[in-house]
Amino acid sequence: MGVIEDFSRKFKGVTFPYPTMVAGGIVKTADHAQRLIAADTMFEWGSFTTDESLGNGGRDYFAAYNGHELDFTLNSIGLTNPGMKYAEQHGPELCLRARDSGLTFWINVSGQSVFDTVALIKRAIAAGFEIITVNGSCPNKADKANQGRAMPILCYDTDATSELFETLETEVGPTKAIILWKISAGMPQPTLEHNIRLVAKSSVMNGIVTCNTVPNGFDLLPDGKPAIQTDNGIIRGGVGGPAIFPIVLGHVHSSATILKDASKIVIGTGGVNSADRIRTMKRTGAFLTQMNSAFREAGEDPTFIRDDILRHLAEEV
Length: 317
Ligand SMILES: Cc1cc2nc3c(=O)[nH]c(=O)nc-3n(C[C@H](O)[C@H](O)[C@H](O)COP(=O)(O)O)c2cc1C
Known about the structure:
Helix content is 34%, strand content 23%.
């Protein structure tokens, strides 16, 4: 792993040993986390929601291929979630193990409203997590004006996002932890800039993770049935994977431009599947990159990032 250490970077006193890692949504149990720590692979643990949930059943993930090449993925937040209590129970031990291996331990939390999100952030700080991604790409279920209609995703809801950031200033303030705001890909530019400017001004958020999936994608299987079919009737899912890369790069570019003078970082997530794309992300302004779909489609093999991606990156520099 000697050459790979050349990529290490520091932010707020924390060392990031590698230029890429596993994005939120795959590693949710303590066992899975330990397997990745043992393989020297960095990852976001979670997302964790406040309550445990069993997921929405059925086919809630779909990967579309163009020949042998992964084209895009669809997913509908359908995975089982162990809940925040589980994260608080197992997190401290995992943090120690990760630190012993030279890795930083990183949690991802997903709230269902402004209030719920603030509570999760406070719990993650109290549990001692060094890095906390706050997933702003979840529906704001407390939005009374929209009850009965499609619920706005929190980061699209500019009033709710402003309220969240204001509440964090008064109830949380600056902390030792690195706290990052994760937004959806494909936002209209004014909404995107609203989110980035909130991060720029915030004394709580230290950067932005851009992006989560593009909401509401759809595909059909060869038999004409929707590619996403769940027990609760959801047939559309967030689009991730290589197809969203240019959209994500646009968000990374906007984020890096606005956050340039604010001493904040940009994490480039979405469509990353090769050393070349990591390099492009970094040139566009990403401090670090993450991947979900490519890792998942590689069979979640803990050595995939280390052996298939980082070694190529080291060789090609
Ligand atoms: C199956 C699946 C589950 C996901 N779950 C989460 C999650 O729990 N929390 C989160 O912040 N993002 C989640 N994401 C979004 C990914 O972390 C990532 O932001 C997105 O898929 C774009 O990256 P990619 O193109 O490498 O897949 C999920 C994505 C997929 C495909």
